[in-house]
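cron nightly-structures :: item 1 of 1
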Amino acid sequence: MLAGAVFVGVARLVLPLLAPAPDIVLVVWDTARADHTTVHGYARNTTPHLARIAAESIVYENAIAPAPWTVPSMASLFTGLFVQHHGVSLDPDSVVLDLPREATTLATALAAAGYDTAAYTEQGIYDEPGFRRGFREFVPTPRAELVARAVEFLARPRSGPAFVLVHWLDPHAPYLPEPAHRDWVARWPRPANLSGAGTREDFTAAERGAGFVFKDDVNEGGVVLTPAQWSQLVDQYDGELQQTDAALGALWGEVERRGRAATTALVVLADHGEGFGEHPRQQVWHDHPYDTILRVPLVLRFPSGLPRGRVRSLVGSLDVYATLLHLGGAAVPAGIDSIPLPDRDGAGRALVGASHYVGAVSYYRDDQLKLIEYRQPGLGPQLFDLRADPRERQDLAGTRPELVAEARARMRRALARGAARPFAAPAPSESLERLRALGYVN
């Protein structure tokens, strides 16, 4: 039985109670890895507001992102399609950044069901026409204004429900938390902080003088961070995570103060995580699809806070697409890869994803096997038995060819269940320049 079938049974009981359809608030934290949140047992209390919300929500303990960076991951969230099926950021030879015209976006489907739709985003690198499709408002918004914008939108008088997307850029590099959120930073500033500059030419002398290190210099071994520098990166990252959590607390606190929590659904998730030296091929940043980068927080709060609990089954963050369409009473397009999220443990998902990174990388993951494959010469496949090696430290690709073949067969079966879509045109030069400035295109 598909894991999402559990949701359908619950929906039959819950959705009749949600008339009229609930408001929906979709919160995206950028670069937030699950194991650095309070909700997932992190030693530091980085996310107390999310933890409070999680107490009356469903927490997905094993939620996996479709890709290791924002654009393809959000494209999957917006379309309900695996990266291999929507084509965004799939091919390094023609970096496609926009959604296929044929795809029904999350906002389009909810708008057709009567929702007023808006997006307020601090993250500007997926500002292509397809991503705006279905949003009545799509407004690039500074961090300081995100909460006020979203609250004002939700408070407007309207005859139907509202859907709002709020996307914070933090805790994306560079990690520069405000003074109120430097609890774990011993000195300020202190080497090293991570520069997200797109090229070494963009990496300025002033940044070097301030103790920044360029990500590619670390990944390529040109700069070897000391244990103290690694600790500093993590300290500052955790501070930005706490800072973003405080903003979530302010947003949801306003919903509660206005008496709207009982009629509002809230989803909090991340587009991807971050690496901090756990793997030789990925020292820092988020190029490779290891679980430190793919495993993200995912919290679903129903109106009135029911049902609630923790789900250990493997799910995909792209499953939020089908879940919200069911919740909002919207038509679910045929042929999508997204399935509704379960409310309790069941059969885990088989997930695939990809990115143009490192010459083109793809992955397959289920409850047992993780296969990572590269098109770039010199980078062979990697295979991990996640039951025996959940931290992905022992690559079995060289010693277990039969398991590699099995994982490849599972990947083919997962992809065969959907049909590839016609891809949008390659990105215009100005879009590539925005990506280059943030370190996503060389």
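cron nightly-structures :: done
The longest strand covers residues 309-316.
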